Q: What sequence folds into this?
């Protein structure tokens, strides 16, 4: 039973390995890291990399993957759309998180890059259905530059500070998997949702 994970940054590999060890021992993970996909998607839009994603996922299935989890919010919808063609479940890591957030009335979405906002808002709308949800967005100024520079602590601190500045919301959504560990640095009493743990849990079920 193998689950393939499509990442756009190598920082996700140890995060998901640790979650697997804690929650899903025995689950075999195969990591596919392609940083260029995010760069191209930011420049030309997520659909611009649909062909490359399709080929990568088809290769993973040919190598024995029973399910695939895309950990990048920006290209998640494009990856998810390949499921029917590939014949195996293709999940986006942020859907379970979005489902939980969409059950609330007021949601604040934090992102470190603007390109993540449109896919995340579309996902929240999809999960909300006919429910009216007040969604506001915040792009954390300077955070992505810290991430690209390899300053993980600085990145997470900026995200945590932005979360703590939110006052009038029922829930805070961390739009990118890379932001997840900021949860441990916040002091806000508002629930802060991140995607890796619930996303991996859903994918583990799909891979069985």
A:
């Amino acid at each position: 039973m193998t689950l393939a994970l499509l990442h756009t940054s190598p920082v996700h590999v140890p995060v998901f390995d640790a979650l697997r060890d804690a929650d899903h021992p025995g689950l075999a993970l195969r990591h596919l890291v392609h940083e260029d996909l995010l760069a191209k998607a930011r420049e030309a839009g997520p659909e611009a990399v649909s062909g490359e994603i399709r080929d990568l996922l088809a290769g993973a299935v040919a190598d024995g993957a029973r399910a695939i989890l895309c950990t990048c919010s920006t290209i998640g919808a494009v990856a998810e759309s390949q499921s029917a063609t590939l014949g195996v479940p293709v999940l986006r890591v942020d859907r379970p998180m979005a489902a939980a957030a969409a059950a609330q009335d007021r949601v604040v979405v934090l992102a470190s890059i603007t390109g993540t906002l449109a896919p995340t808002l579309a996902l929240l709308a999809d999960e909300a259905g006919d429910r009216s949800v007040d969604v506001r967005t915040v792009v954390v100024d300077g955070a992505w530059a810290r991430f690209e520079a390899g300053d993980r602590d600085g990145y997470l601190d900026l995200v945590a500070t932005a979360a703590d500045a939110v006052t009038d919301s029922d829930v805070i959504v961390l739009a990118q998997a890379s932001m997840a560990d900021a949860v441990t640095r916040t002091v806000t009493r508002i629930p802060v949702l991140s995607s890796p743990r619930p996303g991996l849990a859903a994918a583990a079920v799909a891979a069985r």
